Amino acid sequence: MLAILGGSGLTSLSNLEGIRQEVVRTPYGEPSGALTFGTLAGKPLVFLARHGYGHTIPPHRVNYRANLWALHHVGACGVLSVASVGGIRADLKPGDLVLPDQIIDYTWGRVSTYFDDENTPVTHIDFTHPYDEALRATIAEAARLAGVELKVGGVYAATQGPRLESAAEINRLEHDGADLVGMTAMPEAALARELNLPYAAINVVANYAAGRADSAQGIQLSALEPILREALGRVRRILECLVEAYQPAAQ
Ligand code: HPA
């Protein structure tokens, strides 16, 4: 079963059928909300709204450990994150969908590992390729089948938020090699890897990053909502093809 972690703009999946909700308790506290189970194109799916169903949990307060643990606990064998970002790379414009392949982590003070118990041996995970390659390939194929343009590849800069960045910070991120900027991929991707849970993301470009193009003088927050609403219609089309094509890897 595939899990969808929905971000800003994706607090529910309107095309999900046979919906059932389940509250899952975890050793790490409360997930962002009850898990929503249902079927899409006849295939089972579990959905969780990362910021809560009322969109009340800011990125630095999301209980990433509880969210990933809960999805793993109910039998998810892969997690697709849908999350909005700012576009840094010149060809990334509002409304674009991106399948990132790398991450740079600028977050701080977030609980970012399951391996912090004094009694467990020190454990390092391999994170060379933070997103699961097989899941990425399936998503790219699903987008092709759905006839939806998806830009493949990009370096995601994870910032702390909840404020947006300064123009100089965006210049620095670009200098570091970042193509897009968001606030939630870390520690989410690393925790998924610690659980051995394949993880990939579709990022929706909501705005030009601070100081770029239309955002030269500031980011117009009121303009983001209609862009996200339209783009998420395309994401839903990809999801329908994705759940149909999805074959969990043997673990
Ligand atoms: N920066 C960080 N996170 C974001 C942005 C941004 O410009 N847009 C949407 N999420």
What's the short story on this structure?
This protein is α/β, with parallel strands linked by helices and 251 residues long. The protein has 5 helices and 11 strands, in the order ββββαβββαββαβαβα.
Number of strands: 11
Which structural class best describes the helix and strand composition? alpha/beta
Straight-line distance between termini: 13 Å
Estimate the mean pLDDT confidence.
Answer: 94
Q: What ranges have pLDDT less than 50 throughout 5 or more consecutive residues?
A: none
Q: What's the number of helices? A: 5
CATH fourth-tier homologous superfamily:
Nucleoside phosphorylase domain
Question: Looking at the structure, what is the overall shape?
Answer: globular
Q: Tell me the CATH topology.
A: Rossmann fold
The amount of beta strand, in percent, is 15-25%
Largest sheet: 11 strands, mixed
Rg to the nearest angstrom? 17 Å
Oligomer: single chain
CATH class equals: Alpha Beta
The CATH architecture term is: 3-Layer(aba) Sandwich
Work out the helicity level. 25-40%
Total domain count: 1
List each distinct ligand once.
Answer: hypoxanthine
Order of helices and strands: EEEEHEEEHEEHEHEH
Question: What are the key terms here?
Answer:
251 residues; alpha/beta; Rossmann fold; 5 helices; globular; binds hypoxanthine
Structure description:
This protein has one domain (2-245): 3-Layer(aba) Sandwich (Rossmann fold). It is an alpha/beta fold and 251 residues long. A hairpin with a 2-residue loop joins strand 3 (35-40) and strand 4. It is built from five helices and eleven strands. The model has no long low-confidence stretch (mean pLDDT 94). The chain has helices at residues 64-73, 133-146, 167-176, 185-194, 224-245, and strands at residues 2-6, 17-22, 35-40, 43-49, 78-87, 97-99, 102-105, 151-152, 155-158, 180-182, 199-208. Helix 1 runs parallel beside helix 4. The protein is globular, with a radius of gyration of 17 Å. The protein is 26% helix and 24% strand. The longest helix is centred in the C-terminal third of the chain and has 22 residues, at 224-245. Strands 1, 2, 3, 4, 5, 6, 7, 8, 9, 10 and 11 form an eleven-stranded mixed beta sheet that branches. It binds hypoxanthine. Hypoxanthine binds next to strand 5, strand 10 and strand 11.
